[in-house]
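Troubleshooting: if your tokenizer reports a length mismatch, compare your output against this known-good record of 325 residues.
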Amino acid sequence: MQSVLVTGGAGFIGSHLCERLLREGIQTICLDNFDDFYEPAIKHRNIQAMTASPHFDKVEGDIRDLALVRDLVERFQPDGIIHLAARAGVRPSIENPWLYEEVNIRGTLSILQICRDFEIRRLVFASSSSVYGEKTEIPFSEDDPADRPISPYGATKRAGEILCYTYHRLYGIDVACLRFFTAFGPRQRPEMAIHKFTRLIDHGETIPMYGEGDSMRDYTYIDDIVDGLFKALVKNRGYQIYNLGESRTTKLIDLIHMIERALGKQAAIERLPDQPGDVPVTCANVTKARELLGYNPRVDIKEGIDRFVTWYRNPEARVETAQDD
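Known-good structure output:
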């Protein structure tokens, strides 16, 4: 693997992945539109240090611009594509489903067309645990039904998986669809729960807690997500769906207590009704990823929260990361 195109490469997951690819000696092309879903300056900071590397290329553009992406691929001739670019978030997708359809489905179709036209045989597609919907029997397995997502976001991710299968079947593209389970860690988007709660508790502001605090999530540290992404790129063959999680659940109220402990401050909690689109529990069965990719999550939620708070207090400091295989 000589060169890789990463769509959404300046975001939370994408910037960490680009760093990993550079450490592996891979020419890395970062495509990002730096939109205003959150402050674009944050994304620019995420990749600032990498821009000095001769093995890193930053391209500002949109995956929906097929001519731009075609131009980019003609110029750099990547061996594989890791497609992370998407409109993110369950609740915003309910407010603006048209935008989610346009970016997440049509944008993914653009990338698949590029793979077909340029005979790129390696594609990794970032999916989500949201495809499972309101499933309550845990852990979630890749063979479980995923035909009833309860948010437009989850629906667009499932549609992306199905399009990936179609292009694999028609054109022989090796595709790994990775269902992420609540990624967190340094550079996490500011509106996501761990980052938002940390900021509000630190500033002495009230944090919103939807429901009774008994919803449960499988939180996955960024190093483990990135390791799964890299291994899917180099090891996957055919069309496969993999869960990437920790296979452990944490209650929302317990998560808040962990952040309080790490900050040394107490939270003021405002209890609110459950939100539409939120699911009661997520938990990944990662047996398939372990067996086929060698995926091995290492950072549990408590250690991950400590690392996140260390970064939050000093974003310029390097946070200790798990050893790469």
